[in-house]
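ping. complex inputs:
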Amino acid sequence: MLTRRRFSQLLIGSPLLASSGFARPANAAPVSPAQDMGAALSQSRDLLIKGGTVVDPSQNLHALLDVAVKDGKILQVAPDIPADGSRSVISAKGKIVTPGLIDVHVHIFEGVGPTGVNADQYCLGRGVTTAVDAGSAGYFSIAGFRQYVIKPSATRVYAMVDIGARGTLMGLVGNYSNLDWVNPQLTARAAEANKPDVVAIKARLSKEITGANDLEVLKRALEAAKISNLPLMVHVGDSYSPLQDILRQLRKGDVLTHCFTGRPHGPLDANGKILPEMLECRERGVLFDVGDGGPHLSLDVAEKCLQQNFLPDTIGTDLGGLSYNGPVYDLVTELSKFLLLGMTVDQVIERVTLRPTRMFNFGVELGTLRVGAVADITILEVREGSFTFSDSTGKKRTGRQKLQSVAAIRAGKTYINRSDDV
Ligand SMILES: [Zn+2]
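pong. complex structure:
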């Protein structure tokens, strides 16, 4: 598959990093041989990331700090940790060091239907250490997703089970038109059987998918979510019924994705004000995900929501076969769109590190650089310049900053990212 970007190159095995030039992150400051002398000493650290600005919203950190890793876990976060005694050293000077980025909305059932892309190429290769597949599999195929995507991927992968039996196997159009294939008991049973990899149920409530069945599909999806004790993620935009009828039924912990859709039945009223039902949902603990995906993000709608102080809870990409080659590209590009709309670097990082861990139960401590947590880390660069971004309407906007992924560390293993700019 040719893309506008070269494939990111993955490199497993951090020991190479300190000594070999070809494995060095693009544009990273060279690692001096002196920093490798520690290898001869007793190695108390497997990896040391030196000189970066640590941004970790889970600990309210935004400071120049070094991060040490041992046995796949965070060992220490402190200023000026000596390089001696470190098996491998990465210079992160001028870069941002964050907890491994979490994309709560991707489609990575590669080879199954039109939406799946390769997890490691588009997630870990672009700085995303954890990705949640948003219902590419239904109850018929979730076990296969686990076997052929979750198990072999270097990216940490979780999944939602679609309330429709076929997931995205045959695309989306008409997926729920036959309600025989929308079975809450079988969906719940499949979700239960595949926990902890399954973290939610998914339902897509656009009229080309549901026909007139949207509220019945929602009822069945909520039933599956209740039985399996999981949150429900609901996709909206051009629904058959008004958005308000959907919002009223969402529970605390459920997720509404495509929250800034520009399609009919979006989050704004005719005067551009946020619907009161959106605010009521937030009040009772419903969470809101961006889920750009290509057709699901209007920058104008997002801007109006942000102006009314309605920020997303998570910035999931909805990356898949229809959007990896634009306008989504990858998570760092998506985050850059929200920088353009006025959010800060800390705010966007929070929505792909700390906040996703409040949305889903990953069964392991992610989204943090707390000592003892798994060493999932992303190194980012903020590039300054002139960058063009587009949305579902085809409208283009120019931003002055672009986040770029330099490296991702997953459970202590380092993967160098070499994606080009869009
Ligand atoms: Zn999606």
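Residues 15-99+372-416 form a domain with the Urease, subunit C; domain 1 fold (CATH 2.30.40.10).
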